[in-house]
Amino acid sequence: MRELTQTIPDVDALLTMEPEVLGAKMLFLLKKRASHSGEKFNAGNLNGELWHNSNMPGVAHPYSQSSRDEVDLAIAEAWQWLIAQGFLVPVPHSGDWVVLSRRALKFQDEQAVAIFSVARMLRKEVLQAQIANTVWGALMRGEFAAAVFQAMKAVEVAVHEALGKPANLRGVDLMRKAFHAQDGKLTDLTTEVGERQSRSDLFAGAIGSFKNPHSHRNVTLSDPIEAIEAVMLANHLLRIVASRVEASNRP
């Protein structure tokens, strides 16, 4: 990959990059080539390009021969990361040749790649059924504010249904009613009163902090880690609701 020495002329800088960072840079170099010719790629051929003429007398190469093994390893790690993310896919019946995936072709910049990679940290199968498809899909698209709103909305809907869908009772008031420390339908009366109040506060605080603001105004959320944390909080709340509904239905 001859363009790599122009994009990252400092070999020490290249060697300090994590596979996902170097991989993102390599991805856009490959995209630039593919946009012109739609060509297939082979890791061995690209590596050969990088070191072509590097041993010829009088030819100065940006990367020293003494660093070749380290550079080759760093590039191999980045290449495998691209494959693991589904950005490079095999060409059928073509040995080690790959092409850019449809997903890879959609990325506009390296930041979009980074956001997607972080969002993938959340496995779809750990999410409750109510949010597994919609919320996970929103995270994958980078729609973080929408993902958080949908997750917390699912909590509100689950609690509302558990209480028999009372009219004109939503949001924080709904949570306080459902988990009232003395007589809430979803309250575990076998626990200490302090724990009951804390659970009421937990649900009311989560809905008040994450769901209500999104209902009243446009909320900007660009940090995928923050979004994942909020979604996992909603996921845990849904698990609690399901457990309390099951307990209340026991004879």
Chain-wise SSE layout:
Elements: H1 4-7, H2 11-16, H3 19-37, H4 43-50, H5 68-84, E1 88-90, E2 98-100, H6 102-106, H7 110-119, H8 129-132, H9 134-140, H10 144-162, H11 171-178, H12 193-216, H13 224-248
Antiparallel strand pairs: 1-2
Tags for this model:
mainly alpha, Arc Repressor Mutant, subunit A
Q: Give the strand tally.
A: 2
H/E topology pattern: HHHHHEEHHHHHHHH
Residue-averaged pLDDT, rounded?
A: 87
Low-confidence stretches: none
CATH topology of the largest domain: Four Helix Bundle (Hemerythrin (Met), subunit A)
Counted by DSSP, the helix tally is 13
CATH class of the largest domain: Mainly Alpha
Strand order of the largest sheet: 1-2
Tell me, what's the shape? elongated
Number of domains: 2
C-alpha termini separation: 69 Å
The share of residues in extended strands comes to under 5%
- Helical residue percent band: 55-70%
Sheet of most strands: 2 strands, antiparallel
Supply the CATH architecture of the largest domain.
Answer: Up-down Bundle
Helix vs. strand class: mainly alpha
Rg, please?
26 Å
Protein name: Conserved hypothetical protein CHP02391 domain-containing protein
Domain Conserved hypothetical protein CHP02391: 127-240
Pfam families: Hypoth_Ymh
What does this structure look like?
- Residues 127-240 form the Conserved hypothetical protein CHP02391 domain.
- This is Conserved hypothetical protein CHP02391 domain-containing protein.
- It is a single chain.
- With 251 residues, the chain is an all-alpha fold.
- It folds into 2 domains: 4-108, Orthogonal Bundle (Arc Repressor Mutant, subunit A), CATH 1.10.10; 121-248, Four Helix Bundle (Hemerythrin (Met), subunit A) (Up-down Bundle), CATH 1.20.120.
- The chain is built from 13 helices and 2 strands, in the order αααααββαααααααα.
- The chain has a two-stranded antiparallel sheet with strand order 1-2.
- Strand 1 and strand 2 form a beta hairpin.
- Helix 10 (144-162) packs parallel to helix 13 (224-248).
- The protein is elongated.
- It starts with a helix and ends with a helix.
